Task: structure prediction
Amino acid sequence: MTNHVHLLATPLKAGAVSAMMQHLGRHYVRYFNRAYQRTGTLWEGRFKSCLVQSEQYLLTCQRYIELNPVRARMVGPPADYHWSSYHAHAQGIDTELWTPHELYLSLGKNGTERQQHYQALFVNPLPSEQLQRIQQSVNQGLALGNDRFRNEIEILTGVRQKMLKAGRKKKKEEG
Result:
């Protein structure tokens, strides 16, 4: 995208995503600044993230990410966007930056079958409710999943996983 990047990563251990982003921030920014004779930060702020319930939302998140340049009217079909994993998922183009997730692998017995099933996921756009839910989860740092998943994450982490209602709390009336 012109002003942000989406990554969908399955870490092998706790803290791996934060460590990856820290490494990227240190090394890529240094390379970029040197290559383009500039100084300073490259990103506006800290990265945003959320846990994703794989069984329910992994492929939905992949569609969200791979359709982002389409929604932004940067390209027609997702295959036209150069910086997309759509090429690996839907067209079988190999890349070192991509490791297929087990849910993607379960789409078919072989690469051709998986690619066909994956392409079929893009026939219809994502419903606006799903778009909104993904955006809210990322922006608020809340787990993306069903109620049971969010409750389990809340118990494990001690961090609230329910979206708050907009506005301030009403003051209790004195009586």
Summary: Residues 50-157 form one domain.
